[in-house]
């Protein structure tokens, strides 16, 4: 458990719920490649049986592939946004209807829906429409001695699992890889508590040169000069710590999705590359 001082004792734990969504296909069915060709691919929403945290983010015959099950409550905008804004990565979830009722899982991402991973056996029993309740905790989490560091979508469970240390007034975080700010694309216009930002993966040679094509779902990553306080923008010397939450895309301006966990503008965050910095290992939710 981290020795850093937080306001964890003041956090409110609250239940929100949603239902497992059905897969969605883009209007017109075809997804365009950068070269103008087009294809039909699976990817978002529903239940994904064979893609989990710790698996590769690149190389699937899919588009924006999501690990686990995708849940939402789109019958009311207030409930939809409560599900999105109150959820934090690492929150516990429980199935409350259907054949898998009583099974427990972990929130592993936020895309257009909330992504929750259960055991493979539980996934086989689930069906679209089954209701999932999430015990949300983490919104409002703050570091007492680091007011310039904002925590986003960070459950106390994940915060402690990250093993963050401090040295000479700086926080040190282990990350699986660093991404250059110049490749960050779609999602910059969204606030950093809502959904993710895609890296732009169309330059495949660059992805291979930088080793980004080895990224895994659930990898903790760092981006220098990225300020994620209110959105996702360039600011010299800022650092943001993020999480890979969905797979690659063939669409121009898109690629694996990166969700914000921590951000600082004035040098309060540093990082060390550690390939083991992945949600599957940190939260013990592998296959």
From TrEMBL:
Family matches, as Pfam families: DUF4438, DUF4438_C
Residues passing through the membrane, by range: none
Domain DUF4438: 31-160, 162-283
Protein's name in the database: DUF4438 domain-containing protein
Organism: Gymnodinialimonas phycosphaerae
């Amino acid at each position: 458990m981290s020795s850093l001082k937080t306001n964890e004792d003041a956090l409110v734990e609250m239940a929100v719920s949603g239902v497992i969504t059905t897969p969605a296909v883009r209007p017109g069915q075809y997804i365009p490649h950068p070269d103008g060709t087009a294809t039909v691919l699976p990817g978002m929403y529903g239940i994904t049986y064979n893609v989990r945290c710790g698996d590769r983010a690149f190389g699937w015959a899919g588009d924006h592939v999501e690990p686990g099950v995708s849940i939402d409550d789109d019958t009311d905008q207030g409930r939809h946004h409560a599900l999105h804004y109150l959820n934090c990565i690492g929150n516990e979830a429980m199935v409350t209807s259907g054949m898998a009722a009583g099974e427990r899982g972990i929130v592993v991402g936020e895309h257009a829906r909330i992504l929750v991973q259960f055991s493979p056996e539980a996934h086989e029993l689930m069906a679209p429409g089954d209701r999932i309740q999430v015990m949300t905790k983490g919104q409002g989490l703050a570091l007492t001695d680091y007011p310039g560091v904002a925590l986003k979508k960070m459950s106390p469970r994940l915060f402690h699992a990250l093993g963050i240390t401090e040295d000479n007034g700086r926080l040190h975080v282990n990350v699986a890889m660093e991404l250059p700010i110049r490749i960050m694309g779609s999602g910059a216009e969204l606030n950093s508590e809502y959904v993710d930002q895609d890296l732009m993966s169309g330059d495949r040679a660059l992805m291979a040169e930088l080793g980004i094509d080895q990224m895994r779902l659930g990898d903790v990553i760092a981006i220098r000069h990225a300020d994620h306080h209110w959105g996702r923008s360039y600011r010299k010397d800022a650092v943001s710590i993020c999480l890979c939450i969905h797979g690659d895309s063939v669409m121009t301006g898109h690629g694996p999705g990166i969700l914000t966990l921590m951000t600082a503008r004035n040098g309060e965050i540093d990082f060390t590359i550690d390939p083991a910095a992945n949600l599957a290992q940190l939260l013990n939710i592998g296959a």
